[in-house]
Design goal:
This protein is mostly helical. Helices cover about 75% and strands about 0% of the residues. The protein has a single domain, classed as Tetracycline Repressor, domain 2 (Orthogonal Bundle). Helix 1 packs across helix 4 and helix 8 crosses helix 9. The longest helix is centred in the N-terminal third of the chain and has 26 residues. The protein is elongated and about 60 Å long.
């Protein structure tokens, strides 16, 4: 494994655990047992490192999504599996990580979007297209608009400022927020499967 990959993986763990602002290049270097100079030879600053971390995280998510789709009987089952994995993912993440991105580093996310480096956007479009092919999502939906809406719904459902964990369970938020939107784009067969997998997940 090269230094770039090692640095990105370790930074991802530390950012997720402590938040972005709390992690310094010195802390990262000490954790890895390398010099800070080595990190700066690969990444010019923390912003560039964060961009590498976010790109790596979305690539991992893309790999997981493809695996789940390949192992599922239909796209609705795959979505329920992904929602469960997403819930576990965000439950293990420090709230400071998302807060720091939203408050201080959102321009990094926008740059990655502009360069089309956030693969989950394209993956989500494929999920919608697959659902239409399987007859589970309505043919009249606009893929681009629906994709953006679903991504925003997913983001908001994990916003701890809107839905603090002491007042809301992630399961209820996802069910009432994301699944309700999913029902709106589903065919009667799709609705039957949503009901089925909801009961299976209770």
């Amino acid at each position: 494994m090269d230094y770039r990959h090692r640095i990105v993986e370790e930074a991802a763990v530390m950012f997720r655990t402590y938040g972005i602002r709390a992690v310094t290049m010195d802390m990262l270097a000490n954790q890895m047992g390398i010099s800070k100079r080595t990190i700066y030879e690969v990444f010019k600053d923390k912003e560039e490192l964060l961009g590498g971390v976010l790109k790596w995280m979305t690539q991992k998510q893309s790999e997981t999504m493809k695996k789940v789709l390949g192992e599922s009987e239909n796209v609705i089952e795959a979505i329920f599996k992904m929602l469960r994995l997403m819930n576990e993912h965000f439950s293990s993440m420090s709230p400071a990580f998302l807060m720091d991105i939203k408050k201080y580093h959102y321009e990094v996310v926008n740059k990655l979007k502009d360069k089309n480096d956030l693969t989950y956007i394209n993956n989500n479009s494929e999920i919608l297209k697959t659902g239409i092919r399987e007859g589970l999502f309505r043919k009249d939906i606009d893929i681009d608009i629906t994709n953006k809406c679903l991504l925003e719904v997913a983001r908001l459902s994990n916003d701890k400022n809107l839905f603090p964990s002491e007042d809301y369970t992630s399961k209820n938020v996802i069910r009432n927020f994301y699944i309700s939107y999913l029902r709106g784009i589903s065919t009667p067969r799709g609705l039957e499967l949503i009901d089925y997998y909801e009961k299976m997940n209770q």
